[in-house]
Amino acid sequence: MLKTILSISGKPGLYKLVSHGKNMLFVESLADKKQIPAYAKDKVISLGDIAIYTNEGEVPLHEVLTSVKNKEEGKPTSFVPSKATTDELRAYFAEVLPEFDRDRVYPSDIKKLLSWYNILVNAGITEFTPQEEAGEAKETEEQAAE
Fold this sequence. Notes:
Blueprint: E1 5-8, E2 15-21, E3 24-29, E4 35-39, E5 44-46, E6 51-53, E7 58-60, H1 61-72, H2 86-96, H3 107-122, H4 131-145
Antiparallel strand pairs: 1-2, 1-5, 2-3, 3-4, 6-7
């Protein structure tokens, strides 16, 4: 699911990929459902391609979002990142991802991640695990049950 959710540099919020044309993508805002074009010159990144630095390597964004979802019981965060201090942000994020790299994950990254989580939940998107992995996990559970 996160592969079709996009962040566009210079534009607030998140966008869902609707279709693509020559040298552009057509995207729909998750907040207000307005469709706009995203051109080749725009820096567009899929949430499925983002990872968070940890002390041992990187953790895919979908795992971090799932951890936030588990902490918040599937609801938008009660924590207000825009008013939090750096120490409060890091303390909250340590509860979600204890081994995050404190030198390479900046407070602005944590704010953006929590903002994205709230946008996704408010848009009704609460399943963050990619389809292939979800299918593999289900097969593993079925084999374990046998």
